[in-house]
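anyone seen this seq b4? input:
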Amino acid sequence: MSAMPADTKPPGSKYDKLIAAAKDTPMVTTVVAHPCDESSLRGAIESAQAGIIKAILVGPAARIKDVAAKHSLNLSDYEIVDTAPTEAAAASRAVQLIHEGKGEVLMKGSLHTDEIMRAVTAKEGGLRTNRRVSHVFVMDVPAYADTVFVTDAAINIFPDLDAKRDIVQNAIDLFNQAGFGTTPRVAILSAVETVTSKIPSTIEAAALCKMADRKQITGGLLDGPLAFDNAIDTEAARIKGIKSEVAGRAQILVVPDLESGNMLAKNLTYFAKADGAGIVLGARVPVVLTSRADSARSRMASAAIAALLADARRRKAPVAAA
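predicted toks r here
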């Protein structure tokens, strides 16, 4: 890839900067839903010990304590909110605590993604806003110069144009607010770089770029449709005759659908040895969405990103009158 630096950095190096930046901000209170296995409980505790979050553990207390005892994890510094022994009960109570102002971030524990997202997106008592909820993988690819966002590869299965507008805007807002920089380069991916009626995603890519021209999407620099090679490799873009500020240097990769996004993210993880942090946007608070296969560094990076975003929102919020 022409976008690669001459001396590639070791895995996790970009995450080191994120974690260091999060440590420099006030800890954000994070409600952890159902941390009932070692990886989720350890991830929350290690993020708290690193000074990134203040964790509230929500779920069946006896089971949480059993997991802690089995794996020699000390819970003495953490509040535990006891619930019925079901994933749904833990998810519902965790969302309720957010409504009560007890937390600024929601974190998925060992429960299924569908369970926590059902509580987040519930029409009654959920954390909906007027923005579509979407997921971003924030990926540290050792062979690529920039941190790469891949969206949406976890929540929206076949998003239409309106949903894609929100998916793009959510990712741009995260990039701008969480300290990654300003005006990210956004590639709208498809199989080819030309618009054709035979591939509907190329038409939607072109429409999204025009929406950005008309200020329906703001804060980023969009180009598309772009094939993956044209998006991340300057030489591939040159050979194809594509001249843009995005081609070959993309920082946000917007995929056509969940299937392609999931495959892309996992290819980067297993073939390119990338780390992938996960966060859900568009809800009232950032939602840390991790997988059981995530490394400890990825879990901490996910918490760090949510903490940086929560801190940015906190500083942006109007001060109440005395």
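The mean pLDDT is 91. The chain has two domains: 8-128+294-314, 131-282. kinda curious what u guys think
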